[in-house]
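Sample 3 of the quickstart, ligand flavin-adenine dinucleotide:
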Amino acid sequence: MSEILVLVGGVGADAAVTKPVLELVTLARRWGEPSVVVFGSTPDVDLLGRYGVSTVYRFDGPEYADHLIAPRAEALAALVANRAPVGVLATASTDDREIAARVALRVGAGFVYDAVDVLADADGVRTVQSVFAGNYAVTASFAEGPVVVAVKANAVTPAEVQSPSPASVQVVEHEVSAGARRTRVVASEVKEAASSRPELGGAAIVVSGGRGTGGDFSPIEELADVLGGAVGASRAAVDSGWYPHQFQVGQTGKTVSPQLYLAAGISGAIQHRAGMQTSRTIVAVDKDPEAPIFDLVDFGVVGDLKVVLAQATAEIAARRG
Ligand SMILES: Cc1cc2nc3c(=O)[nH]c(=O)nc-3n(C[C@H](O)[C@H](O)[C@H](O)COP(=O)(O)OP(=O)(O)OC[C@H]3O[C@@H](n4cnc5c(N)ncnc54)[C@H](O)[C@@H]3O)c2cc1C
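Result:
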């Protein structure tokens, strides 16, 4: 069967088999056999085996952690040239997307980023992108070369295989070129404080607050926590200093595509929509019945978010026991 390489983002301790990676593996099985590529650590081979991964290619070496993405892009491109896979899949995180783009350039392949689906049937492999703030869906096919795609989180539900067996690990040697080592990380990285909430970009549920919160994000956080979701914010809320910038959703913030997006006190400006419009189910709470966000929603509540969110949180908590 044809091999498809799935990139695990990060290096060493940061290289985790996250839900978005398992989604890529599940997508890859639509048209081939997924193998995983990882830098500096051995992932959970039992977990990967359960999702149908038979081989893990592992690159080791300090240059992957000490430098920016160039060594990883070069190593992955060399592996692609060597293995001749039919596809390379990466998540839509900033680093993984750039690595995938560089790999495509090096191996002469077509590249699609921010895909929301990858289809495979008798007509071949096609990607689906949601563009112009989600108003159009673009389907693209590949004329030649391996299919290199960066896929948004929540494109598919990860599915285990029926007869799993642990993945085997192959250590791959690669001499990183001087050119790829030109940019080195010299200062220590400052890690964000760990949060018990899921990472915004890959979360299945996102609850976002806007200017309508008046600066009090506690109803947003409480609802997010009872749902096990991540917290997001509009730019108006971020610019007001009410919530940190890394939680901004939209054109100049994060792009999210969860199963459920709940916007509270967010009017639905085009720049905000650009970052959340591909969410599966969209719910909005706004006191203005004319707010543009209501043009977009599956379910809307007109009311004061403090009242509505508190009621929803209490009801969900009671039902969950
Ligand atoms: C180049 C550019 C890039 C941008 N990028 C982004 C981006 O990435 N992300 C982003 O979000 N924006 C972005 N913006 C800003 C965007 O245009 C809007 O200004 C912004 O999204 C508005 O945020 P908001 O919906 O929270 O505020 P508002 O538009 O002021 O809406 C607040 C809403 O809250 C409602 N409300 C008020 N009180 C309550 C209450 N008690 N209960 C319920 N509802 C209430 C109001 O009725 C209103 O609908 C960008 C703009 C530009 C020009």
